[in-house]
Design brief:
Blueprint lengths: L12 H8 L2 E5 L6 E6 L3 H20 L1 H18 L1 H12 L3 H26 L14 E9 L2 E5 L7 H13 L2 E5 L6 H13 L6 E3 L4 H10 L2 E5 L2 H14 L3 E4 L4 E5 L5 H13 L9 E7 H16 L20 H16 L3 E4 L14 E4 L6 H4 L6 E7 L2 H8 L4 E2 L1 E5 L3 H8 L6 E4 L12 E3 L1 E2 L2 E2 L1 E3 L2 H5 L2 E9 L14 H15 L3 H4 L4
Parallel strand pairs: 4-5, 4-7, 5-6, 7-8, 9-10, 9-15, 10-13, 12-13, 15-16
Antiparallel strand pairs: 1-2, 3-21, 8-19, 11-12, 14-18, 17-20
């Protein structure tokens, strides 16, 4: 998932003045207007923030899962009370259609409710039974203790949903959390963190720092656990630095998600799924449909359905709410990436059945584009596009589709479309992807009990996943105690020949699984 690490220098005098004062502008990509300002915070400020959070974390942990869940409920209520205002702010800094901007807060609130409901049971001590007579007198406990400070670094494409999906389970685990949103769209998340601290008056365990690359690097250098969502290139650097510091990290990185359409699929549903799955958020989602493989028998009909639906879509700045379907590219760099991929495909023999160029408007828009006659020599099939394109490739059969779908170093998610559920399950288990949706797209990001994890170059670890979503932010602690207090343990000093022979006989009796070895019969 691409993430912007730098911001273009301001060109207007007022922007230059603010930049020199340590601030940078945030633009609305739908019309280019400045909608807010954010500070470029220094590494020293990051360190000071982490130090402050670290001091508050023990009191937060001491509240217990039940007490922390009460605060999660207060945050939920505050979000609901401010949903219109927050959604409008989010739309202004992302250029999304209102319908898509309005999806982020419900997704975040759903995560709040889910983790708050399950935190107490998930974090409760576990007491496994002793595995044999040697430890039969011991009481065994596994405790889940939070990492003191977690750093959450998120990109610009979902500036509320992504930090909430990561910060909320970390908070409920008992961690303090410092968040660093993308400098392209930091305003809404910054406002939510302000509400937590100033309006709710919660403990000082959630902070937001804004800035450019140096700010994010300072977060990685100061925390005890890093959760990063963004590009594979940046993820590699963060993983390397985390390894040098010997701290754990979770990396949710890029994808080039395949969609396989078999001849027996419901083509009406598959076509609609392809259009929404590929063009939602203008294609700027790591789990969006990026390449489509369709069996030859239904290829023409499928393409015709997709083209018809794409041509009916409305694109533009959604100033009146629910008046457009496809929004802007959030960054100029992403607009240029889409342009390059489409131009490369057309120069290599592909055809654009609809779209195929940026729109002539003040904003950063690219026309929803359906590409056919594509193959794996083209950038649109080999690189993550992250834009409103649907490259559709004809395949001979399911085996051909599986081979092509796996011919890629990413493995985030995929979808399989067929009316044969058993066949769909078999194909799903042959795809190199952390999540596979059968007859659906992007469903896995809304299913909190199961993990969202990338394979290959799509990441390390994952988010969501029920109990895992909270426990990933915990260190396991093993505690042993005595059920029956002995004066001395058999294995303790002093060593004597008689004790040695007795212990050897006991160990053999406990570990051997046949009479000859148990009794040492020669």
């Amino acid at each position: 998932m691409p993430t912007t690490l730098t911001t273009d220098r301001p060109s207007r005098p007022d922007e230059m003045l603010a930049a020199y004062a340590g601030q940078f502008p945030v633009h609305n990509p739908a019309d280019g207007s400045v909608v807010g300002w954010a500070r470029d915070q220094t590494p020293d400020e990051v360190i000071d923030t982490v130090t402050r959070l670290r001091a508050s974390q023990p009191e937060w942990e001491a509240l217990g899962a039940k007490g922390r869940s009460l605060w999660a409920g207060r945050l939920r209520d505050w979000l609901l009370d401010n949903d219109e205002r927050l959604t409008a702010l989010l739309q202004s800094e992302t250029g999304k259609p209102w319908a898509e901007a309005a999806l982020e807060l419900p997704t975040a609130i759903d995560a709040l409710n889910y983790y708050a409901k399950h935190a107490r049971e998930v974090l409760a001590d576990q007491h496994p039974r002793p595995h044999g007579l040697m430890t039969a007198t011991k009481r065994l406990t596994t405790a889940f203790r939070p990492y003191p400070v977690v750093g959450v670094i998120t990109p610009w494409n979902f500036p509320v949903a992504l930090p909430m999906l990561d910060a909320v389970p970390a908070l409920l685990a008992g961690c303090a959390v410092i968040t660093k949103p993308s400098e392209v769209a930091p305003l809404t998340w910054r406002e939510i963190v302000r509400g937590w601290n100033e309006e709710l008056g919660a403990l000082d365990v959630l902070a937001c720092v804004t800035g450019l690359a140096a700010t994010g690097a300072a977060v990685v250098d100061a925390v005890d656990y890093v959760q990063f969502t963004g590009s594979t290139a940046t993820g590699r650097r963060i993983g390397q630095r985390a390894g040098q510091r010997l701290i754990p990290c979770g990396l949710e990185l890029g994808g080039k998600d395949p969609m396989i359409v078999l001849a027996d699929a419901d083509l009406e549903r598959a076509g609609a799924g392809a259009v929404w799955g590929g063009l939602f958020n203008a294609g700027q989602a790591c789990v969006s449909v990026e390449r489509i493989y369709v069996e030859a028998a239904v290829y023409d009909e499928f393409v015709a359905r997709v083209v018809e639906q794409v041509r009916a879509l409305r694109q533009g700045a959604d100033t009146s709410r629910y008046q457009t379907d496809v929004g802007a590219m959030i960054t100029d760099a992403q607009l240029q990436m889409v342009t390059r991929h489409v131009e490369d495909a057309l120069a290599s023999g592909a055809r654009a059945l609809t779209g195929g160029r940026p729109t002539a408007s003040a904003g950063s828009f690219y026309e929803p584009t359906v590409l056919v006659d594509v193959d794996h020599s083209m950038a649109c099939m080999r690189e993550e596009t992250f834009g409103p394109t649907l490259p559709v490739m004809k395949v001979t059969d399911a085996e051909d589709a599986i081979r092509l779908a796996n011919d890629w170093p990413y493995g985030l998610s995929a979808s399989v479309w067929t009316n044969d559920r058993k066949a769909g399950q078999r194909i799903a288990r042959r795809l190199d992807a952390g999540a596979v949706n059968l007859n659906g797209v992007m469903t896995n990001i809304f299913t909190l009990p199961i993990p969202q994890a990338g394979w290959k170059q799509s990441g390390i670890g994952g988010r969501l996943g029920g109990a895992y979503g909270i426990r990933k932010y915990c260190r396991t602690q093993a505690i042993t105690s005595d059920r029956l207090q002995l004066g001395n343990e058999p294995t303790w000093y002093p060593y004597t020949p008689r004790k040695g022979r007795l212990l050897a006989a006991i160990f053999r009796a406990l570990t051997a699984r046949d009479t000859r070895r148990c009794l040492r019969i020669r």
